[in-house]
Amino acid sequence: MTDSENFPASPGEIEPAQPSAPCSGGPTRRGLIQGAAGIAAAGVVLARPNIVRAASETPVKVGFIEDESGNLSIYGIQKLHAARLAVQEINDGYTLAGGPVGSGCLGTMGLYSPTPPTLTSGPGAKLNIINDGGTPSEHAIVTADTEEILIPSGEKGLLGRPVDLVSSDGQSNNTLWQQLARRMIQQDKVDVLVAGFASAEREAIRPIVDQRKQLYFYTNQYEGGVADGYTFCTGAVCEQQVIPVMQYMVEKFGPKIFTIAANYNFGQLTAAWVRSFAPVLKAKVIGEEFPPLEVSEFSSVIAKVQAAKPDWVMTLLVGQNQSNYYPQAAAAGLHLPMASTVNMAQGYEHKRFTPPSLANMHNAVNYMQEIPTKRNQDFVARFYKMFPNDPYLGQMAQNTYFTIHLYAKAVRLIGTTDQEKVRRTLEAGWAIEAPEGTVFLEPATHHASHYIRLAATDEKQQISFVREWPMIEAWWLQRLGVNLVRHPEHKQYTPQEDPFFKMFG
Amino acid sequence: MMRMLQLLNGPHDLGRGRGFWSGMVLLAAAFLAYPTIASSFSATNVAYYLLNIPMALGLSLLWGYGGVLSFGQVAFYGIAGYTYGIVAGNLQDFAWGTEAGVLAALLAAGLSAAAFGYFLFYGRVAAWIVPILTLVLALLLATFLGLTAGYQWRVGDIQLGGYNGMTGIPALQIGGLTFQDYAFFYLVVAIVAICYVALRIWVNAHRGQVLMAIREDVLRTELLGYDVRLEQLRVFVIASVLAGVSGLLYVQWGNYITPSAMGLQQAALPVIWVAVGGRDSLLAVAIATFLLNQLTYILSSGGNQSALVIVGALLVAVMMFAPEGIIAGLGRLHWLHWLRARRRAVPSGPASSGK
Amino acid sequence: MSGSERIPLSRREGGSKVLPELASILYQFGTNAAFLLLSALGLIVILGMMNIINLAHGEFMMLGAYVASFAVHRGIPFPLAVILAFFATGAFGIVLERLVIRRFYGRELGALVTTWGISLILAQGALLLFGPYMPPIPIPGGAVSEGVFSFSVYWLILIGISIVLVVALTLVYRATPFGLQARATMQNPSIARSLGIRTGRVYMLTFGLGAGLAGLSGALLAPATSIAPFMGQQFVAPAFITVVVGGGANVIAGAVGSSTFLSLIETPVSLTLGTFYGTMALLVMALLIIRVLPAGISSLGARLRPAVAR
Amino acid sequence: MVNDAMVNDAMVTGGGGPVLKAERLCKRFGGVVASDQIDFNLERGEMRCVIGPNGAGKSTFFALLCGILPPDSGRVILKGRDVTHLPAFRRVRMGLGLTFQTNRAFHALTVAENLETARRASASASGAADDAHFRAAFGAFDLAASSHLPARELPHHQLQWLEICMALRRGPDVLLLDEPTAGMSPGETMYTADVLKTLSREGLALIVVEHDVAFVRKVAETVTVLHQGSVFAEGPVEVITQREDVRQIYLGRTREAAA
User: Fold this and answer.
1) Structure letter (DSSP) for residue B111
2) Nearest to A96 by CA among A379, A462, A488, A443
3) Which residue would you say has higher pLDDT here, D233 or B50?
4) Interface check D154 vs B, CB under 8 A
5) In A, what residues contact B, Cβ < 8 A?
6) Among the four residues A28, A126, A180, B320, which has the most C-beta atoms within 10 Å?
């Protein structure tokens, strides 16, 4: 239990809560969302005014499964702690700024538009692959300029009930994950499930989630493609990370790319993205290597990279064994610029590895604790006040943090924890002021747009952010025509199902 | 029929006689009645503790009765699980599609065990190489399946799925009945009961005696005129098909399987269950499998990270202080009196009258 | 200590393209072989001399890496830390032998299962005690370059060290009183005992030596890997494959032979087809060897006591 | 099954000549020659003792005859059929029975189960006449009373007898016994000798590898002496045991071992 002194002003008396400032500091999408905040779009979103009820005995249960032991625990413990922080803040009477962005637009659009609606474009818009980056352009969104993102929610807890974090350790064991998911859903009857690091874990529990119609958040960065009516994915996906980092690397270092990717789902799929989008960026993948996850000795990979002479290397290596690549490459004198979507932001390799193993590494991230904005520094301070001994606060932890706040906001708005209604409310389209920046939850795809920054390391593995894209959508599922509001489905798409990728094998 | 009952009551497992079998019937009745008081969640969980028993019984037969240790039974568990996923997944819209999946899965487990076992037993490798090679087989399969993430790795409509595994595996359907929740629980209880009874008859029948003869003395058995290689291969195939039965039940339970089901830690578990229970008693192995699965679940779902340490320590302690197994040891204590009483009834003569 | 300087091996500008290619292949071959040999060394001593199949071998290597990491981050120079790892892991091995392993002489399968239990305890115990990872050890030495390729000095040193270790081990077993006693005990424990050799002590020291060598290898490989509780798993398969393929009457020669042979297979396959196929080739090769060369296996098996069943 | 049928044919056609025959059997281990050009013939109904000092190659010869070891060169002919490349269990199915130097009955099984295991070794059933040997031995050794005891509870000599009965259970034509009386008291040894002699008289061919000269004198007609892997002498028991050179290698070695 932390004290609340480190939080901004304590809310005095609890007032009947307004829907916590819908759209305050939220986005306005020119031509689309203007004034939308005021329009209480019927049926779905504001069906019931929010009333603070008498404190009830039954808490709101947030089910939470992560790996607190085993191989993946360096990520799982971060996420658990971030979830604790979010629950603590909710119970202390705080919320993150934000609200439904288009109660009159996007949610409705999702329900009635024949083509999937997006935030950046209306119906029938063209595929907008890359935001130019840098300064917001005519077509970019207007982000909130507030730095005070943690604001009083008007009540302690949620709907007058305390929020409980029901957490379990999945121990990197898929069978245990299934058992725990069943227990959370069937026995603990959690109101929402926030769980999953590895894609395998998500895929292990998704059938159970679907069978029981459980509201489920997956907060990890992943390979993309999950289109599931009961699942919301709030982490970054390939199109948000791969293409920005490639664009930067090609501009800065040259067009010849060598990809080293873990030989499993994430690595294969992400490598397919790199291969397919290189021609779009006038670059070329001149070599690819897929070492198995078990491999920890990389001399032949390193030799191949040296022989191919690329301008830079895309490293999509995963797990303990494969992280050996970096010190081995550095020791072998391979000092090419590197890009990645997995390292640093989660496993804080730049802090763990001795320089210069991870020097000259680039990663497009939606969050790292080094982000120099005030809202982030406040967040980092709150986190370390609660967990002073933690080694790092990473991307997935931040995603978990804002996701739980987002859920609480939706519940507060609709006034019930009824999962079907909360899901419908979330499908109105939401913005939330996360530590990274403004994040939009897109109704049609159940994915989030992110504020993406390009983090680069110097010789001493210090982080600097060399470019930023204030909003990149998860546009790929939109391109495939996924509209979960109108056509709920329960599958994971792979790039092979998209004709664009087929052109590149 | 009487002969079957006699064999069932035979000496090569714990427990005999009217009292024991009444107890077993009561136990079975208790399992059958369990769903009336339990939630479908608890029933599903208990089904999980039970569904590994066929694999454990198979390993008990192979190791405890036959003296051949395999670390790779999970390989056949996985082969059956994946085969069922592929066949039943492709045929699920047809009548008898899932049954065809079951058949294909058991065949795949049996045939692959026969092929692999041929190399092991007809190559007459040393006893300690069998566990190492079976382990290598399991790891090889796990590695291979982990690499099948690409779109090219599909059979019909079914994607192998690499590390993320194969999802959406259909539940078994017979007629209009789909084996889920309570129905699945009953299915598991029935299969476990059938496996136990059948194996108990088997070990007390002639083949079981030959198996124990091989465990005691390979050369002696061979020089009685038995083809030891064939006998070992036969029991290896039976044990692997039983592992396949568990694999089948597992994919029904979770509608899902990943390569990690054949990984290093999973491979360790059957050996632990069998060793802790008492490898030369089917009953002890079944009980230990149930209890240890429950223990692991309780420890880990309570957020306790020391589950692996505790299970490992248990294994070491058992191997050091009770190599015959904890449950078998306890069981023998109890049955000792009964045995002694019985022995007195046997005319004792030859020991003294032999000259 | 900085890995950034690159010393050119050859001064010829635009010289032959063959030489660097050849050097690169040789280097990879050497590192692959050294990796296999180092992974297998401790295992081979324990198996060859005692008939104990030590499935906790990977965890002994993990212990060595942990000790080295501790030492290095308390200011002890890396070479000293490696030696410390040898003695610390060796001492741990001796304690373990006295407490547990000695009950299992003549019961190979019992030892196999027990050491597996020990490996679970050690790995998860390390996680509980020290957390999910240890601070890394920087790779000593820089790199030398030849053409477009550059090679890690440290791996070159490791290749040298593995040769030195093999020679030293051979000398210990050929030319010291302990080696003589060990070989006598290995051939016939009861006769050795009747000749006044304290076979219990020989077993204890042999197990300690095997454990120490595992720790030494773990410490030596630590800079090239991430030091974590489950790091031992990555060595288990290569180590056992090396041992099973090695076989032969002379364990040390067997290990040298099989690591050389396996890397001869692995290196070209990795280079032409990819790392995945390299690893697969290693595993498939092991299975084939076992089937095609039953003599290798049987000569290995014949040395085991005749207890075929238990 | 096909093989068994062929084996049965061989049994039918293989009458006449010696029932078991070894031709120029050689086996070496490294530099040690364990068997050196051994020629050996055993007639039907013959009782032969093979003796020799420790290390003379008796056990190797025994292993070569029953197929535990493959010979480097030479042939083994059982009932007229070349069995040199047949695995041990096939030779057993053809009519070879044997016991080991150390007792190797199955301790976990009962006496009855041990015998049952021996009886059902293969599909090819044995004739009723052959069964007579077993019944005679079983009666003589008085094992019926302990049928339901686990073998581990039998006294030592009865275990030896049980093993002989197991070897006889399927009605072999040739019985190979490796030191069948090791560890028995003199009384038990002589009783065993009597039973074996009876069996031999009833037409069973026997080879007994032995150490105990008293026992050899009692049972054998012909004795083969092995020394350093080859046949040193062969002949009637009275002649051989009187020969000075035989006594020398035998006693010399014995004295050495005692020293």
Assistant:
1) H
2) A379
3) B50
4) yes
5) 68-69, 167-169, 171, 173-176, 178-180, 182-183, 186-187, 198-200, 203-204, 206-207, 263-265, 267-269, 290, 292-294, 494, 496
6) A180
Asked if D103 is an interface residue toward chain B (Cβ–Cβ < 8 A), one would say no
Residue of C nearest to A262 (CA): C276
- Decide: residue C177, CB within 10 A, 0-12 exposed, 13-18 middle, 19+ buried: exposed
Topology classification of domain A3-236+370-443: Rossmann fold (3.40.50)
Contact call for B351 and D121, based on CB within 8 A: no
Least-confidence region, from A440-444, A501-505, B115-119: A501-505
Q: Classify residue A359 by its DSSP letter.
A: T
Q: Does the pLDDT at position B343 exceed 80?
A: no
A328-382 pLDDT tens trace: 888 888 889 999 998 888 888 888 888 888 899 999 999 999 998 889 999 999 9
Residue A159 gets the label, from left (phi > 0), alpha (psi -120 to 50) or beta, of left
3-state SS class at A19: coil
Are D and A touching by the rule of 3+ CB pairs within 8 Å?
no
Q: How many Å apart are CA A487 and CA A504, to the nearest integer?
A: 30
Q: Are D26 and D35 in contact (CB under 8 A)?
A: yes
**Fold designation for A239-365:** Rossmann fold (3.40.50)
State how far the Cα of C32 lies from the Cα of A211, in Å rounded to an integer. Answer: 49
Looking at per-residue pLDDT, the higher value among B74 and B139 belongs to B74
Q: Give the ranges where B205-325 is alpha helix by DSSP (H).
A: 206-216, 218-222, 228-254, 264-277, 282-301, 307-321
Dig out the tokens for A31 from the structure.
């031509």
| pLDDT score of B338 | 56
Indicate if the pLDDT at residue B201 is higher than 80. yes
DSSP state letter for A475: -
CA distance D166 to chain B (A): 8
pTM, full prediction:
0.79
Tell me the per-residue pLDDT of C6-28, one tens digit each, with 9 for 90 and over. Answer: 444 444 444 456 677 788 888 88
Strand-strand pairing, A226-228 and A490-492:
antiparallel
> Do residues B185 and B48 touch, judged by C-beta distance below 8 A?
no
Q: How far is A383 from chain C (nearest CA, A)?
A: 20
User: Domain D44-68+83-258 - what CATH class?
Assistant: alpha beta
Q: CB C128 to CB B306 under 8 A?
A: yes
Say if residue C306's pLDDT is above 60.
no
Supply A237's token pair.
């996906």
- Residue spans of the domains in chain A: they are 3-236+370-443, 239-365
Would you state the structure tokens that stand for residue D47, as one six-digit string? 């009782």
Q: For residue C223, what are its two tokens?
A: 């800079």
ipTM here: 0.75
**Contact at CB, A300 and C230, closer than 8 angstroms:** no
Cβ separation B69–C113 shorter than 8 A: yes
What is the average pLDDT value for chain A, to the nearest integer?
79
How wide is the angle at C-alpha A478 spanned by C-alphas A477 and A481, nearest 5°? 95
D106, D155, D157: residue with CB nearest B212: D106
| Tokens standing for residue C163 | 């040769």
- CB pair distance less than 8 Å for C100 and B126: no
What are the extents of the domains in chain D? 44-68+83-258
Bridge partners, residue A312, by sequence: A257
B30, burial (CB in 10 Å: exposed 0-12, middle 13-18, buried 19+): exposed
Q: What is the largest CA-CA distance in chain C?
A: 70
Task: Kindly report, residue by residue over C112-155, the tens digit of the pLDDT.
Answer: 889 988 988 998 888 888 877 777 777 777 677 776 777 778 88
Domain boundaries of chain B, sorted by first residue: 40-263
Its sign, for the CA torsion A389, A394, A400, A402, is positive
Residues of C in contact with A389 (CB under 8 A): none
Distance between CA B71 and CA B133 in Å, rounded? 8
